[in-house]
Amino acid sequence: MALALLRDGFKERSITQRTAVPGGTLYRLAIDHGITAPHGTVEGHRCHEAADTEPCDECSLADGRDQARKRARHRRSGSPAAAAGAARAPGSPWRTPRR
Ligand SMILES: [Zn+2]
Hints:
The protein is mainly α. It has a domain at 2-68. The chain has helices at residues 2-7, 12-19, 23-32, 42-51, 57-77, 80-86. The longest helix is centred in the C-terminal third of the chain and has 21 residues, at 57-77. The protein is flat. It binds zinc ion (ZN). The site of zinc ion (ZN) has 7 residues, from helix 4 and helix 5.
């Protein structure tokens, strides 16, 4: 089930949500069964990693894009504007109720 989703190009996150199979296990299972995610996706890159093979160009590109996106998100969260947004996040320490 999880492997079929992976093969069909679903995102790791949505597969985990649907099947409760964590990412690491998912890729190990995929390798065991000779299944890989479509190339040119982050999931495809993970399959290369799990299989210990050299990522192909498409997969490196997809992974590089994903890393850049994550870094950009990280940078934004450090800006004052994002800090204001973080104030609304639940569990923020300096936002205790009843004060
Ligand atoms: Zn690939």
